[in-house]
Amino acid sequence: MTALGEADEPSVEALLPDADELPEVLLDLAVPHEDVNELVALRARVLDHPDTRWVLTRCVDVLLRDLGEPEKSPRLPALPEELGELGSCFYVFVFLAALPRVRAYHRRRGIPDDVSRHTLADLGRHMAVHRRGHDGRGVPVPSWNALHFRGELYQLGRLQFQRSLLGPRMGAALAAAGTGLGPGDRCLNIHIPDFRGPLTPRACRRSVDLAREFFPRHFPDERYDVAVCHSWLLDPQLKEYLPADSNIVRFQERFRLADTYGEQAPDDTVPVGFVFGDRQLAVAGLPRRTRVERAVGDHLRAGGHWYGGHGWFPLGRPGVARPFP
Questions:
Q1: Bridge-partner residues for 228, per DSSP?
Q2: Does the pLDDT value for residue 119 go beyond 90?
């Protein structure tokens, strides 16, 4: 790919919406309304200084390199806190400049407009998550949103599905199960977004059904026979606190769990961040308003730890009996 800014590529100024168009584009990306005016004002600061414009150009170039190729998404570092909102919001403009190309990629693949729109609107959702936890404006984990803007991840109903490759742990588990798959083979990596309603069995089943139709249709050159999930929601310890008919336990039971603990270190901050909005909250003061809040907090207060769970299930093909009840 030719670097942005060269003769045959439009400049970042041309790729970014102008100040009058920007509010509509931001709202299409579900950016919180209270952030829109400030981001419009910040646009000039990003473009008017040669250094920030150069960094923007380079970041867009890196983001779009190997567009659509799974597992080649770059790690985009957070910028220094001393830059204030210029740093915390900088990647909004990187994603805005990448937007025309990722939409063109979606069109080439025949991705329906509603799937494209819902997928890319995850940018605004993550800004809302950041505001909930930190009462500030910005993109907390730009490398996560890079997956959406590179054509690797798609929102299909309640769940998100990332075109991915099996890693050593899950690949070994699938090989041991006699699936014929192993490390490096293709898989769909399931993600569970916040602010998308309850994680009901019906909603999850619909998402998997959508995925089983979507990927063969729009990526016919790729075969996905298995779905995997890496999440604290698959930690079996949750069954000690939640009833058998809870959405989380029923979600767990769809998966065949690989070794959850092994040599894996605990990561107690992950469930705290997802449930309470801030990974740094003191355990002693965690609220107990819901069953999940009580489960996460009480387990930690009792001296326990949480681990990321790793599970898989056969995805099947369209026209074949559903493996996800």
A1: 189, 312
A2: yes
pLDDT tens sequence across 238-280:
999 999 999 999 999 999 988 755 567 888 889 998 898 888 8
Return the residue matching tokens 């192993």: 182
Report the amino acid identity of residue 102: V
Q: What is the pLDDT of residue 262?
A: 57
Cα–Cα distance, 230 to 249 (Å, whole number): 15
Sign of CA dihedral 297, 302, 308, 314: negative
> Is the pLDDT confidence value at 83 over 50?
yes
Q: Using alpha carbons only, how large is the chain's radius of gyration in Å?
A: 21
Antiparallel, parallel or unpaired: β 226-231 and 186-191: parallel
Q: Do 158 and 207 contact (CB within 8 A), yes or no?
A: yes
DSSP label at 82?
G
pLDDT at 261: 58
295 in Cβ contact with 288 (< 8 Å): no
Q: Which residues contact 38 (CB under 8 A, 6 or more apart)?
A: 85, 89, 137
Give the model's confidence band at 318: pLDDT under 50 very low, under 70 low, under 90 confident, else very high.
low
- Beta bridge partners, 155, equal 160
Find all residues with CB under 8 Å of 131, minimum gap 6, and list them.
Answer: 32, 35, 137
Q: 255-285 burial, b if ≥16 CB within 10 A, otherwise e?
A: bebbeeeeeeeeebebbbbbbbbeeebeeee
What is the Cα–Cα distance from 4 to 67, expressed in whole angstroms?
Answer: 14
Task: Concatenate the DSSP letters of all residues of 236-291 into one string.
Answer: GGGGGTS-TTSHHHHHHTTSEE--SSTTPPP-THHHHHHHHS-TT--GGG---SSH
Mean pLDDT for the chain overall: 89
Distances (CA, A) of 101 to 40, 105, 187: 21, 6, 25
